[in-house]
Design a protein that fits this description.
The chain is mainly alpha-helical. It folds into 3 domains: 2-107 and 191-225, no CATH class; 116-184; 229-328, no CATH class. Helix content is 81%, strand content 0%. It is built from 12 helices and no strands. Helix 1 packs antiparallel against helix 2 (37-61), helix 3 (66-105) packs across helix 6 and helix 4 (116-134) packs antiparallel against helix 5 (142-184). The longest helix has 43 residues, at 142-184. Mean pLDDT is 76; it is low at 231-259 and 261-269.
């Protein structure tokens, strides 16, 4: 009994941790997706309900008939899709915020002075003025023309130097922008582009993968934690229960009567003996793991009526309660 409780407690702890984590993800995702306060609260409530339903539906629907399990599977798929989408929103937003924080570390480059467009416009006006000076006839103003030509040539040289400096600053600014864009990208998620995933979808694919994994872990752990107690206990103790059957009654009756052959035939054909035999077959199936302790499975296994299967299921429950009480004592 103590071993059984320990085996059940381990998946319960892991299932609770996964469910609490998934619920926290849904809370943050609902808060990020909502606008008004009331909208955020409702989105959080919807996300938490979908998380709990996605985790518990497989375990809750397992003991029921195939119709209930089919309906539960449909609802479970819808809950899983909605839950994974909400978790993907959280992972994408978290990666965006982390990228913005990393990008703030990159130094911001600035372009001092004028930009290339302003310098090009000034240089064009200087070149036009120099062309007009070159077309002037010298005459009495040759010295003035030469001075202006030299001045314009010097200005063109200065503008060329300013253009080179502005180009270097523009390149530094482009490098800073590239580093900032690279810092915003998750370095590990960027490796998915090598497998054919588009760069703009990398964060979404990675978020969906994390969401599916955590939801799968939670569902599987709850499936283990909420397995029927009667099935587990019967499977563990069936080997101890099998020898303690009412077959002893038959042997006692045979010993008392004196007519062994006749009494044995009567006992074998009596309803009590058939009931004992059916109970033994059910216990054997539970021990082998080929049968579950449900009325539907017992009826299919023995080929008996619903009433007989229900009576056998009641006997199993009573026997297991007595065994558990004895073990606790």
């Amino acid at each position: 009994m103590n071993n059984e409780k320990a085996m059940r407690a381990q998946p319960v702890l892991l299932a609770l941790a996964a469910t609490v984590t998934a619920a926290c993800l849904s809370i943050v995702a609902g808060w990020q997706r909502g606008g008004l306060f009331a909208e955020r609260v409702l989105l959080i409530c919807v996300g938490v309900v979908l998380v709990v339903a996605a985790h518990l539906l497989p375990a809750l629907c397992r003991p029921h008939s195939w119709r209930i399990r089919t309906l539960g599977a449909s609802l479970w798929l819808g809950c899983m899709a909605a839950t994974c989408y909400g978790h993907a929103v959280f992972f994408v937003m978290a990666q965006k915020h982390a990228g913005e924080i990393r990008a703030e570390v990159v130094p911001v480059a600035s372009v001092p002075g004028r930009n290339l467009a302003e310098i090009a416009s000034d240089r064009a006006r200087t070149v036009a003025r120099l062309a007009r000076v070159n077309e002037l006839k010298c005459g009495e103003r040759c010295a003035a023309v030469r001075i202006e030509r030299t001045t314009l040539d010097a200005r063109l040289a200065a503008l060329d130097a300013e253009t080179g400096e502005a180009e270097r600053h523009e390149l530094a600014l482009d490098r800073a922008d590239a580093e900032r864009a690279a810092a915003k990208t998750d370095p590990l998620a960027g490796l998915l582009t090598d497998f054919g995933v588009a760069a703009r979808r990398v964060d979404l694919v990675a978020g969906m993968a994390f969401a599916v994994v955590i939801e799968g872990v939670a569902c599987f752990c709850w499936l283990l934690a909420l397995r029927p107690a009667s099935t587990t206990a019967n499977a563990v103790t069936a080997s101890h229960v099998l020898p303690v059957t009412a077959v002893t009654r038959t042997s006692t009756i045979v010993a008392r009567g004196g007519n062994d052959a006749a009494r044995r035939r009567n006992a074998a054909s009596s309803p009590a003996a058939r009931e004992v035999d059916d109970l033994t077959r059910v216990l054997t199936g539970l021990r082998d793991g080929t049968l579950r302790a449900t009325v539907c499975d017992i009826r299919k296994h023995l080929g008996c009526s619903q009433a007989n299967a229900a009576a056998l299921r009641k006997q199993l429950a009573q026997q297991m309660q007595s065994i558990q009480a004895t073990a606790e004592e």
